[in-house]
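Exercise: predict the fold of this chain.
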Amino acid sequence: MKSNIFKEFMPVSLATFSQDRMLYSEYQPCKELCRAINCYWVSPSIYNLDERRYSKKKEIIIPDGCLDIIFEINKQKNDYNSFIVGMMSKPLITSPDFSNSQIYAIRFNPAGAYYFINNQLADFTDLMVDFKSVSKKLEQKLAAIFLSEKSIHEKVKLLDSFFLSQFDEWHENAIIINSLASILRAKGNTKIKKLSQDQYVSERHLNRMFKQWIGLAPKEFTRVIRFQNALRNVLLADDVNLPLIAIANGYHDQAHFINEFKAFSGITPTQVVK
C-alpha cells in the first residue's frame, strides 16, 4: 500500500463548538480511504433537543485545506439540505443553530474530493454549492446512508463501503500527490518555482492542475497550510511568542505573520489566545 502523505495532516479549527464532544464528533475512515478522506463528522453528536447548547452563537470557520460535503438534516420535518463547501481562502462567520438540525459531513483531504466529484474544484472555492446540482446520483446514495436510522458507527461502515466501491478505477495524479507531499512536509514554506521544477512542469501548468484537483492555486494553498501550522503553534504554546512563531513558520516578521493570520481568520493571534 502506498504511504499516506496525510497521516499527520490534522486541520485546526477556531470554532468553539468543535471542542465540545456533545456538539461535534469526528470519525476516521478505514485505512484504505485515508489518502482521500480526512474524516467523517457529525454536529451535534447526539440528536436530542433538550441537550442543545450555544444555539446561533457566532463562529469563525477558517480555511483548512479541505473540502466538505455536508448534509443538514431536520428530523422533525423529515427534510434535509445537502451542499458542497469548497476549499476556502478566507474566513466565514456563521451562526450554527443546534436546536433544529443535525449535520453529517465528509471532509476530504486536499485533492481527495476530485476522485468522487470529478469537477474542477476551483468551481467550488469559497462557495457553498447545492450538492444535487453537481451529482444527483452520488447525493442520493449518501443521503440514504445519512437519513437511515442506523447508529453513527454503522453509518461510518456504510460510508467506507460506498467510497471503497467507487475506488475500483481510482488513480492518483503523481504530480499533485508529489507536490502536496512537498508542501505538507515543508509546512507550507515551499517555493512554487521549485515545486514545478521538481515535477518537470511549468508553473502555469501546475497552477491549472491545482485549481482542478484542489481548488486553490499552489501559492494560495501553501499560504493556507503555513497559516494552519502557525495557528497550531499559537494554540499549543504555553507562552505565545509571536516573533518566534512568525520566524519559525517562514514569515518575514511579526507584522507579516499578523497580516496573514487576519486574512485567514479575521482576528489577530493575540485575540485567539485570550
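Check your answer against the key: Residues 218-236 form the longest helix (19 residues).
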